[in-house]
């Protein structure tokens, strides 16, 4: 009996050592793959882990560290207290995304709703002051993360910042023919008088944004930050036109 217990504990320690080894070589150490032996009671597993097919493998989100696996958590499953996100928590991390320009908006929406459902300040209105403040901090952080990652321009700018290549005004000079094209597009938009024409114009503008997004994705994959900046700078103008289209649609 004692031998079986010792073997089981030895297996658990092996899992934890392997976890630390894998964590040390993960991308920028933002995520840590947590191997927890199933001998641990579920009551002490940290909330915020996304369970995989194997019940012993879980991905951490963000926050403090679990005392068993040193992975990040936002809420302690043992006592239920909230923990503020770490200062180095990225928007990608809190939304359980790989650090990449390519994201799934449907998955982001699903995770956003899950996080707000669990950490919205309204759920902690009767809790202690510390939990109320932290819930507001988490909710605000999740809102900013969702807005940034679902916007192709903001997502690109944020990714440039994470890669230590922040965009500065004057970094990229746009060609005069491109700027003239934007002027003409705005003038064309001013002359549109029907919903049908506006819909066609909107489709054309969305195509421009989509094609630029694809170019930005390729640039990031190649590590070409100058190209990413150039295409993001162009995208900004088409997104501005998109906002004008939405305003016209509301007023029609």
UniProtKB/TrEMBL annotation:
<dbReference type="GO" id="GO:0044571">
    <property type="term" value="P:[2Fe-2S] cluster assembly"/>
</dbReference>
<protein>
    <recommendedName>
        <fullName>J domain-containing protein</fullName>
    </recommendedName>
</protein>
<dbReference type="GO" id="GO:0005739">
    <property type="term" value="C:mitochondrion"/>
</dbReference>
<feature type="domain" description="J">
    <location>
        <begin position="90"/>
        <end position="162"/>
    </location>
</feature>
<dbReference type="Pfam" id="PF00226">
    <property type="entry name" value="DnaJ"/>
</dbReference>
<keyword id="KW-0143">Chaperone</keyword>
<dbReference type="Pfam" id="PF07743">
    <property type="entry name" value="HSCB_C"/>
</dbReference>
<dbReference type="GO" id="GO:0001671">
    <property type="term" value="F:ATPase activator activity"/>
</dbReference>
<dbReference type="InterPro" id="IPR001623">
    <property type="entry name" value="DnaJ_domain"/>
</dbReference>
<dbReference type="GO" id="GO:0051259">
    <property type="term" value="P:protein complex oligomerization"/>
</dbReference>
<dbReference type="InterPro" id="IPR004640">
    <property type="entry name" value="HscB"/>
</dbReference>
<dbReference type="InterPro" id="IPR036386">
    <property type="entry name" value="HscB_C_sf"/>
</dbReference>
<comment type="similarity">
    <text>Belongs to the HscB family.</text>
</comment>
<dbReference type="GO" id="GO:0051087">
    <property type="term" value="F:protein-folding chaperone binding"/>
</dbReference>
<dbReference type="InterPro" id="IPR036869">
    <property type="entry name" value="J_dom_sf"/>
</dbReference>
<dbReference type="InterPro" id="IPR009073">
    <property type="entry name" value="HscB_oligo_C"/>
</dbReference>
């Amino acid at each position: 009996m004692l031998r079986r217990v010792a073997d089981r504990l030895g297996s658990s320690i092996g899992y934890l050592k392997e976890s630390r080894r894998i964590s040390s070589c993960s991308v920028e150490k933002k995520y840590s793959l947590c191997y927890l032996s199933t001998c641990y009671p579920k009551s002490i597993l940290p909330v915020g882990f996304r369970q995989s097919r194997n019940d012993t493998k879980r991905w951490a989100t963000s926050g403090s560290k679990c005392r068993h696996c040193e992975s990040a958590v936002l809420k302690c499953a043992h006592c239920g207290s909230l923990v503020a996100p770490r200062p180095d928590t990225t928007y990608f991390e809190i939304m359980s995304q790989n650090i990449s320009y390519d994201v799934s908006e449907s998955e982001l929406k699903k995770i956003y709703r899950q996080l707000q459902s669990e950490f919205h300040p309204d759920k902690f209105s009767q809790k202690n002051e510390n939990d109320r403040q932290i819930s507001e901090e988490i909710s605000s952080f999740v809102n900013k993360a969702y807005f940034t990652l679902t916007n192709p321009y903001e997502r690109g700018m944020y990714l440039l910042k994470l890669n230590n290549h922040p965009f500065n005004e004057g970094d990229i000079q746009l060609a005069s023919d491109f700027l003239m094209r934007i002027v003409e597009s705005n003038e064309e938009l001013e002359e549109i008088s029907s919903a049908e024409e506006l819909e066609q114009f909107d489709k054309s503008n969305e195509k421009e944004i989509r094609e630029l997004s694809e170019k930005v994705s390729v640039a990031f994959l190649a590590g070409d930050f100058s190209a990413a900046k150039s295409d993001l700078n162009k995208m900004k103008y088409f997104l501005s036109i998109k906002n004008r289209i939405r305003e016209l649609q509301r007023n029609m």
